[in-house]
Amino acid sequence: MHRLTRDEARRIAVRAQLLDADRPADVVEVAEQLGAVKIDPTATIAPSEQTICWSRIGWSYEPGQLTKAVEDDRQLFEYDGNFRPVSLLPAMWPLMRARKVREVTRQYLDANADFRADILRRLTADGPLQASDIPDTSVVQAKDEGGWYGSNQVPRMLDLMMYLGEVAVTGRVGRQRVWDLAERVYQGHGAELDLEAAEEYLAHRRLQALGIARQKSSWSGVGMAGEAAEVEGSDWKFRVDPEAVASLQDDPGGRAAILNPYDRMLFDRPRLVEIFDFEFVLEQFKPKAQRVYGYFAHPILVGDRFIGLLDAALDKKKETLVIGAVHELLPFDDDEREMVHAEIRDLGEWLGVPVRGLE
C-alpha cells in the first residue's frame, strides 16, 4: 500500500499528463503517454486536438505534425473521436469486434443489414471514401436524440461500424473523415491479444496516462491495474502507477499550462475535486446569462494547482487573440501572474496573432 500526500498525488497526476516542466518532443510521444488525444471542432481558440498537443509540446509544435503522424507515418489512428497510438491496436481491435451494443442499436443494425453490407461492398471495391460518396440505402432511421446526426443515415452507420471494428478512418479532407475497411487500416500492427489480456493491457495504459486514479472508477477504467494507494485526507481507494511513485523524487518542477476544456487531464471530474480541489464546469451548454467564466473557458494549471480560467477567443477577421478575462480562482502572486501571462503570449505567438486585452 502506497501512502501519498496530496502534493505527491497531484505531482503524479500532472507528470503523467505531461504537464510538468519536462516537455515531450513530439505528438507521437504525447499520444503514447496520454493514450488518446480528443478531436472536437469547437475552436474558440483552436480545435482541441491542436491545443492538447500545444499545451504539452509548446512553441515547437505545428498542426501539420499531427496530420503527418496520422496519415503519412501511420503512428496514430483515429477511433471514436480521438487520435490514438497504434501500439493500442493489438488490444483495441479484438475488443471492438467483440463489443456488445444496446438492444435498440442491435435492432437498428438488424433492420439495416443490407445497408450495412452495401457500405462494406462499396468500401471493398472503391475505398477509401468520404461519407458523402456513399448512398443512403437504409430502410429504418434511428432517432437522433442528441441532435448530432441529420436524416442521412450514412454517418451514423459508419460510426457504429467503426465502433464494432468493421470500418476505420484512414484520413481527413479538411474536417471530413475518409473511411476504409478496418482490416486495411488496422492490420500489420502486431499480434492481437485475447480479450482478457487486452482488457488488462488497456487498464494498465489508462493508469499510466493518469498516474493515479480511483479504483474501479467508470471515469478512469483502470480496474485493478497498478498498485493500491491511499491519499492523505481522502477515503477513496486509489490505484497508482508504481513507476510514477518510483520517480517522485526525480521532479523536473512545474510550469504554467492552458488546457482545452476537452483535455484528458480534466475528464475525471470527481478526481479533480478530490485531489486538486478544483470543480470544473464546462459552460458551453449553459444559457449565456448563467455563465460565470465564459462559453469555453480554458483551465489554467500552474505547477500542480488549478488557479484560474482563461476566457479568450480567436478573432479570425482581425487576426487577434482577444482576452475576455483571466479569472483568478486563487489570487495570483506576482510570479504566477507573469507565468500565466507569458503562457498566454506564447499561445498568441503559436497562433501567429497578437494578443489583445491582456493586462
Please give a quick description of this structure:
The protein is an alpha+beta fold. The chain has 13 helices and 15 strands. It has helices at 6-16, 27-34, 48-57, 64-72, 89-98, 103-111, 113-126, 154-163, 182-186, 195-210, 242-246, 269-276, 334-351; strands at residues 2-4, 37-38, 76-79, 82-85, 129-130, 167-173, 176-181, 212-214, 227-231, 238-240, 256-258, 298-302, 305-315, 320-328, 355-356.
Description of the molecule:
This is Crosslink repair DNA glycosylase YcaQ family protein. The protein has 359 residues and is α+β, with helices and mostly antiparallel strands. It has a domain of 101 residues: Aminopeptidase (3-Layer(aba) Sandwich), CATH 3.40.630. Helices cover 37% and strands 19% of the residues. The longest helix is centred in the C-terminal third of the chain and has 18 residues. The relative contact order is 0.15.
Backbone structural class: alpha+beta
Oligomeric form of this entry? single chain
Level-1 CATH class name of the domain at 256-356: Alpha Beta
Beginning-to-end CA distance, first to last residue: 47 Å
Shape: globular
The CATH architecture of the domain at 256-356 can be named as 3-Layer(aba) Sandwich
Please compute the radius of gyration using only Cα atoms.
Answer: 22 Å
Write the SSE topology.
Blueprint (H helix, E strand, L loop, with lengths): L1 E3 L1 H11 L10 H8 L2 E2 L9 H10 L6 H9 L3 E4 L2 E4 L3 H10 L4 H9 L1 H14 L2 E2 L23 H10 L3 E7 L2 E6 H5 L8 H16 L1 E3 L12 E5 L6 E3 L1 H5 L9 E3 L10 H8 L21 E5 L2 E11 L4 E9 L5 H18 L3 E2 L3
Parallel strand pairs: 1-9, 14-15
Antiparallel strand pairs: 2-4, 3-4, 5-7, 6-7, 8-10, 9-10, 11-12, 12-13, 13-14
